[in-house]
Amino acid sequence: MTEMTMVKAINAGLRRAMADDPKVVVMGEDVGRLGGVFRITDGLLDEFGAARVIDTPLAESGIMGTAVGLALRGYRPVVEIQFDGFVYPAFDQIVCQVAKLHYRTRGNVKMPITIRIPWAGGVGAAEHHSESPEAYFVHTSGLRVIAVSNPQDAYVMLRQAIASDDPVVYFEPKRLYHQKGEVDLDVDLADAPPMGLARVAREGSDVTLLTYGSQVTTALDAAIAAEDEGVSIEVIDLRSLSPVDYRTVTASVRKTGRVVVTHEAAKEAGVGAELVASVTERCFHYLEAPPQRVTGHDIPYPPAKLEKYHIPDLDRILDAVDRVLDKPNSLTGLEEWRTAETGRAGVGGGVL
Amino acid sequence: MAHTLTTPDLAVGVDDVARLLTPDGERIADPDLGRWVADVDHELLRGLYRDMVLVRRIDTEGIALQRQGQVGLWAPCQGQEAVQVGTARALRADDFAFPSYREIGVNFVRGAKPADFVIAWRGEEHSTFNPYDINTATPQIIIGAQTLHAVGYAMGIQRDGADQVAATYFGDGATSQGDVNEAMIFASSFRAPVVFVCSNNQYAISEPVTVQAKYPIAGRAPGFGIPSVRIDGNDVLASLAAMRWAIDHARSGKGPAYIEAVTYRIGPHTTSDDPTRYRSKDEVERWKQRDPIARVEALLRAEGAFDDEFAASVASDADELGAKVREATLTATSREPIGVLDHVYEEPHTGLQEQRREFGAYLAGFEASEEASR
What we know:
heterodimer; A: Rossmann fold; 2 domains; 7-stranded mixed β-sheet; 5-stranded mixed β-sheet; 14 strands; 35% helix; B: Rossmann fold; two-stranded antiparallel sheet; 44% helix; globular; Pyruvate dehydrogenase E1 component beta subunit (chain A)
């Protein structure tokens, strides 16, 4: 085991994948000489050469579309999208081509593309540099979606993503890039847990807290704080957003009977909405309280100085824990108001 | 030239093109293109003629099948047979083509089977042929997306140290898309062995090419560092010659090449639109006078290489192919209902597996009730 940051772990994962398979190519803006704006690809150009570490023109759709062509030719492109908000110009190629070519050709064409996206906020970045677009990709059949939360997972799951014959969108939380953790660089992929499995990051008995990626650290902090108040929170790091490991999720919910989901992305039609719906379908009779979501607001990502009011923090998570435990919380009183408003509104009511 | 301080004149004319065969079927000299088809004899010419007639027959059959409700939609290629057949004939079997949905002639030359032309439009499959069987990508519907795939594939060829080329086909409307421009930048920057074939058929559904271009489309390529040629797309010899030049350029390591083939779509964009709303009868008639097939027939006749026996054999081949296309349509069968869930992922995806179990159980319920009612 070696202690290292997530940046170093991803770098090691790329190096290992490239060494293992000559068909693996890394491509993106500034990934060569500069080693990437986050230095994730540092040293790869010198080691593997410009044919395998490709500094591309500044065109995200171009990067993704040429990766499709390389995959058709038998290569395994690992594409770096420089920042989350820059994936939108490549969206068409991802959802119409990368995700669908295997289906379109009835399995004749494989798309083993890994799309690495430095992701989400909390680092004081400029506009378009702190987006959480994961729900768009979870909603797209044909893609696998991964969100890592620690160096060991980042290392192992990147190698698994690259080895997968399916396209994988791989989200890397920028906020956790420089957190250190133990990494087993010699892990054998054959022995590692499959990429889709969730991880019980902390065991607990009162409330199940579902989260992923950038929020895992905050969720664990909330669980520690709750313990002081006598509440035992089980934190589940989903790791895979498509597919979701519902076996692990429902086992926990059946034990605790209470669910809080937290993520940084906006609430409406987000991953949390999907999780709550699926958990309710599967565990309705086990639930002691309505599941709660703690998410980013339904707003464009705010300016950096205000992002602390957008990203769910420890207190907002604990407030939701109070809600599922029926303890006094910030919505006490507001629930009645909401019910009353909803009752008065409705089609033709003119209040919606 | 490092700057242009004046606006160029509008130059979207259809006669400012290189050609080797006049609309009357007279073979003419062209200093640049001529040498690429110096070897073309009557046998090859008759082959090109035959291919074009067969492609037109597939097209005619497709339109008829749509009118009869046997396919949901059809995108006709009548009038564009020369550029499709002429360029595709210049490709080697191990080169890789990336066509749009209108390239019936390209797919025919690449070896597509009768069913391959109709099954997707009938809605049975998204793609009939396996792209690797005929080294041709599934016809692309998203406008211009395939140009990037071709460039990426060509980058793969480079990395393999192979001498193949990738060729991509698209229309004049596609040249307005970001992807096509990005494809040209990637191709040029990496000197990828790729050939761009723009079939300028004058309209993007109803929008004339003047909405896409104020300067000849071929004129854009040099701005990307890509040599180009603007040819008469209704001239199969010019199409063959230009493509041989372009492929030679790409195959010999000089990077991408670009062809703008000026042509015309005689029919509608698809069977869903009404071209009389946006084109005059006179315009269509003028273009019919430039018909790519009649042009080759005139040449062959003038040179004594077109007789009744040849005409009859081509007509018989066309009848046979038309019948096969029709039969493939009428005998097409759909997958089992559960099959809609197939091939979404290469490896098992637990979420979809669960839906498959649920939908399978639902379907099995019908079988059980049918069983019980017997």
